[in-house]
Amino acid sequence: MRVKIDTAGAWAKFNVNYIDKLSKRLKPLLNSKTAALALEKFNNKCLLELHAKASASNDPHMSDFLESKFLDEQVESIEQIAKFVTNLKRLGPGMGEYVFDKENFDH
């Protein structure tokens, strides 16, 4: 299916079926990364609640353990996944997947 759009006196043609195929490829990848981001945020929230309980009960060892072993890594993981989701939304399926492969598998 082809569509013509009149913009400022110029006609633009594009293939709608091609866009539909790209969006079908994009949805599973974007959904999985969005779900992973939600899971990481939930884990971070639970760790912060545990850290608050450790601080409230004056347990500096537990607080330090959570900060050094879990919280920093959790924030880095959230940043990495959020960056990928943002790039995928901005760049679309073709270029977004290419950037993901390039950043994660070309080392």
UniProtKB/TrEMBL annotation:
GO molecular function list: ferric iron binding; ferrous iron binding; ferroxidase activity
Protein keywords: Iron, Iron storage, Metal-binding, Oxidoreductase
Enzymatic reactions: 4 Fe(2+) + O2 + 4 H(+) = 4 Fe(3+) + 2 H2O
InterPro entries: Ferritin (IPR001519), Ferritin-like (IPR012347), Ferritin-like_diiron (IPR009040), Ferritin-like_SF (IPR009078), Ferritin_CS (IPR014034), Ferritin_DPS_dom (IPR008331)
Taxon lineage: Eukaryota, Metazoa, Ecdysozoa, Nematoda, Chromadorea
Residues bound to Fe cation: 40, 74
GO biological process, one term: iron ion transport
SUPFAM superfamilies: Ferritin-like (SSF47240)
Domain of life: Eukaryota
EC number: 1.16.3.1
Gene that this sequence comes from: Acey_s0113.g379
Protein name: Ferritin
Role: Stores iron in a soluble, non-toxic, readily available form. Important for iron homeostasis. Iron is taken up in the ferrous form and deposited as ferric hydroxides after oxidation.
Family indicated by similarity: Belongs to the ferritin family.
Domain Ferritin-like diiron: 1-92
Gene3D superfamilies in UniProt: 1.20.1260.10
Gene Ontology, cellular component aspect: cytoplasm
